[in-house]
Amino acid sequence: MKVNEYVRAASLKEAYSLKKSSPKNKILGGGLWLKKGNGEVDKLIDLSRLGLDQIKEEKDYVSVGAMVTQRAFETSLIIKKIGGGVLSDAVHQIMGPAFRNSATIGGSVYGKYGFSDVITALLGFKVDLVFYPEEVVSLDEYVKKPGFADGILTEVRIYKSSAKSFFKKVKMTALDYPILNVCVTKDKDYRIVVGSRPLVAYLCEGAMKYLNEGGKDVDQAVELATQELKLGDSMSAKGEYRSHLARVYLKRALEEVK
Amino acid sequence: MEVKFNLNGLDVVYHVKPGEYLLDSLRANGVKSVKKGCNASACGACTVLVDGKPTLSCSVLTASIEGKKVMTVESIQEEAAELSEYFAKEGADQCGYCSASLALVVHALKEENPHPTRQEITDYLVGNLCRCTGLQSQGNAVEKYLGGKK
Ligand SMILES: Cc1cc2nc3c(=O)[nH]c(=O)nc-3n(C[C@H](O)[C@H](O)[C@H](O)COP(=O)(O)OP(=O)(O)OC[C@H]3O[C@@H](n4cnc5c(N)ncnc54)[C@H](O)[C@@H]3O)c2cc1C
Ligand code: FES
Ligand code: FES
């Protein structure tokens, strides 16, 4: 990555106006994904002085600043309380601690990576994304919309939940990207998520509707979920194999959380 | 651009390019104990401690460490020498390319969690790949080293 100028933003206003002024200006999270790009960045905008690295417990939700690192997230006692600790568990499985000490929650969510364990796990809960200036979008909507937000992601709001939860990352080696990831939670309602399809995570709304309207047959729910899922080929696995994995882990998940 | 930080207890000023990574800045300034393995955030050979936390120096821009404390293996020489005895006994050390980064990671683990379980040791070391030995023998060495410290 070639960078022409490194700017330590003094305010969100400054960061946003720089971001808007050129598509070659980029926000810096942990920079791990940005490093993979070969392009030229004109102004790289550092948000580290804006206090976005806090995890705070509010009445109904937990506020996670965009610059919170994956490691701070995974080890936070506040995060461990959500859904029996499934979010910590999912993030803990990404690379090693030195990696997670830099990678940020903001960079992980904003980038909408197809393989993302972070997005799959978060989609198991009601989550809002707060962008500067003045926009709140649910994570459900954000992943469905094509493209990326125009604003700066400042906060990820995770609504408190004591849902029974299941997360599985299927991978070939300890440091691998997932071949498939699955998150299923049940609070009042079920939420069923499959990611690394290899496209971005998908909420299986047909199967959720069936269960949330009183359907009891786990095999029927798995059938509905696999019918609506689009699973494709990638270097790590064929769609057919992903489909087999999805059936196995969705069944296991639904039996575990019911 | 100018970046001021603390390296192994000394305040330093580095003159770097805006897109320069900490690994390259350290090596250009003579700190050759920090190794380049994959240069792709995947092997851990370049690990240093930034404000006490293991950090991949190949993936962190030098500009972003302004005002922070960076530790390389030079700052824990005695501890690294003691640890290497345990590594040698367990066959967990051969060419030594990964050793400096591992010593820093073990130092950070000890600070964060002085009595880790075997699983916690594995989880802490998993990002530091060793092409000569492996996590099993390294885990044995660290378990004995930290156990001996109890
Ligand atoms: C080798 C490697 C292996 C990985 N393996 C996995 C894995 O197994 N599972 C997994 O889930 N993830 C994995 N990831 C992805 C990783 O977990 C992070 O999600 C990713 O690196 C992005 O986080 P970052 O902080 O590094 O973002 P950056 O690289 O800093 O930014 C990513 C993008 O988001 C933009 N951005 C960052 N923050 C904001 C913000 N606040 N507002 C607006 N835009 C913003 C940046 O401009 C950039 O376009 C891997 C990444 C690498 C490099
Ligand atoms: S050289 Fe930095 S992780 Fe491999
Ligand atoms: S001893 Fe050779 S890479 Fe670890």
Keywords summarizing the entry:
heterodimer; A: 258 residues; alpha+beta; Uridine Diphospho-n-acetylenolpyruvylglucosamine Reductase, domain 2; Enolase-like, domain 1; 3 domains; four-stranded antiparallel beta sheet; 12 strands; 25% strand; globular; B: 150 residues; 2 domains; five-stranded mixed beta sheet; 5 strands; 38% helix; binds flavin-adenine dinucleotide
Report on this model:
The complex is a heterodimer of chains A (258) and B (150). Helix content of chain A is 36%, strand content 25%. Chain A has helices at residues 12-21, 32-36, 70-75, 77-80, 86-92, 97-100, 105-110, 117-122, 139-144, 205-212, 218-228, 239-257; strands at 2-8, 26-28, 40-46, 55-57, 61-65, 127-132, 135-138, 152-159, 164-170, 180-186, 190-195, 202-203. In chain A, the strands form 3 sheets. Chain A has a 5-stranded antiparallel beta sheet. The model of chain A has no long low-confidence stretch (mean pLDDT 97). Chain B has 150 residues and is α+β, with helices and mostly antiparallel strands. Chain B has 2 domains: 2-72, Beta-grasp domain (Ubiquitin-like (UB roll)), CATH 3.10.20; 75-147, DNA polymerase, domain 1 (Orthogonal Bundle). Chain B has 5 helices and 5 strands. A 5-stranded mixed beta sheet of chain B has the order 2-1-5-3-4, covered by helices on one side. The termini of chain B are far apart. Chain A binds chain B through residues 1-6, 8, 28, 30-32, 35-36, 41, 44, 46, 48, 71, 92, 95-99, 101-102, 174-175, and chain B through 1, 17-19, 21, 40-42, 44, 47, 50, 53-56, 59-61, 63-64, 66, 105, 123-129. Bound molecules: flavin-adenine dinucleotide and FE2/S2 (inorganic) cluster (FES) (2 copies).
